[in-house]
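Risk register update: the risk of archive-format incompatibility is retired. Evidence:
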Amino acid sequence: SSDLRSSDASVGAPPDGWSGLVCATATPEERSSIGPWTGEGLGPFIAYSVPGSLDPSLVGVLAGLVEPLAQAGVPVMALSTYRTDWLLVEERHAAEAETSWVAAGIEVLDA
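Archived output:
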């Protein structure tokens, strides 16, 4: 997915036809949302997900995806759902992220 934002404001209802990621998170200290890019908040981001369902008991999947980005100096926000992991990379760093994954032997597929 592309054209995502992250902010401390409510994400609201996605626009008609939006088929991308929408997430709202709240803790006692903060509220944040990820949703369609509106020109406000951080972003835009490209959202990468691990294909298929992951068993929640698997260990190291997220670390294996984040480590090549850390080595390349690419900032990332991680988000996990019940079935998979998502990595949000600012659009301006997307090519560098994909190059880092390919160099680490991680296949990058188009959605």
